[in-house]
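Whiteboard transcription, Tuesday session. T.W. wrote the structure tokens on the left side:
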């Protein structure tokens, strides 16, 4: 079983904590976490992008990567919990330090060359762009970095979907596509990536997850086809009273050799807040 989260924008430790508490309360181990980009990976505070810098002025959780790029008592507490998931695997969005990710990729590739660690604890692992990683329980995850630049022409080159990565994935087989942007027209007309739509039609994975959009849309009903496509809201702890945001995470289970996904109930999420999360 895996948890799946939308954009975290720095809230890595709260995501681990929520998955840990869900596992303990439901007496069901969570093997890992998948995350659909905009992790908020800025290990050097001097390299924040403008949006992250602006949001961090009113919400220090935006800078949560600082709690894991070196040892901290908070990370020690979260990661040493016996019910903590084994790792978080993420794809890159448009709000990351892509140069820092590429440097980590250069020095830290896994033995199968599909992932690399992005933190001091080796608990947060980046899925390589255009590659397929085999995770616990045999889950095969294809990763695609970045967004389609059509809707945002000023998107830096490093944050754009690489068509060569799309082509590599089109020649592979995998259970889940983990991307930051969604298929074309999935959320609104003209938004999203035609390349992702073509990839899903070509490969037909069981499931696809994406984030990026501030939209209440969950499952993309009109794009089911062979693939069930899910949008995840940002996990920012900005809902009423600082609660975990509805539609921001869900549970990926394997039933009778088939992977299935359900969102975590909104009522349960409302108990997890920015004020109490480290100590709940």
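and on the right, the sequence the group agreed on:
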């Amino acid at each position: 079983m895996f948890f799946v989260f939308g954009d975290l924008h720095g809230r890595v430790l709260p995501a681990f904590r929520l998955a840990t508490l869900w596992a303990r309360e439901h007496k069901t181990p969570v093997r890992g976490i998948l995350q659909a980009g905009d992790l908020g990976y800025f290990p050097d505070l001097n390299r924040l992008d403008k949006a992250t810098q602006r949001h961090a002025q009113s919400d220090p959780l935006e800078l949560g990567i600082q709690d894991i790029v070196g040892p901290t008592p908070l990370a020690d507490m979260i990661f040493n919990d016996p019910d903590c998931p084994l790792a978080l695997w993420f794809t890159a969005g448009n709000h990351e330090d892509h140069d820092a990710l590429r440097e980590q990729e250069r020095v830290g590739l896994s033995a199968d060359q599909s992932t690399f660690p992005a933190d001091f604890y080796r608990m947060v692992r980046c899925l390589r762009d255009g590659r397929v990683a085999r995770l616990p329980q045999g889950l095969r995850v294809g990763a695609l970095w970045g967004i389609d630049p059509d809707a945002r022409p000023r998107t830096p080159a490093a944050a754009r979907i690489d068509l060569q990565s799309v082509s590599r994935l089109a020649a592979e087989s995998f259970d889940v596509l983990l991307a930051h942007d969604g298929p074309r027209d999935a959320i609104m007309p003209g938004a999203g990536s035609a390349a992702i739509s073509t990839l899903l039609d070509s490969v037909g994975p069981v499931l696809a997850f994406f984030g990026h959009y501030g939209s209440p849309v969950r499952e993309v009903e009109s794009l089911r086809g062979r693939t069930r496509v899910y949008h995840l809201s940002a996990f920012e702890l900005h809902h009423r009273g600082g609660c975990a945001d509805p539609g921001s995470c869900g549970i990926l289970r394997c039933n009778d050799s088939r992977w299935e996904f359900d969102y975590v109930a909104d009522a349960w999420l409302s108990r997890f807040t920015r004020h109490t999360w480290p100590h709940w």
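Someone added at the bottom: The chain has seven helices and twelve strands.
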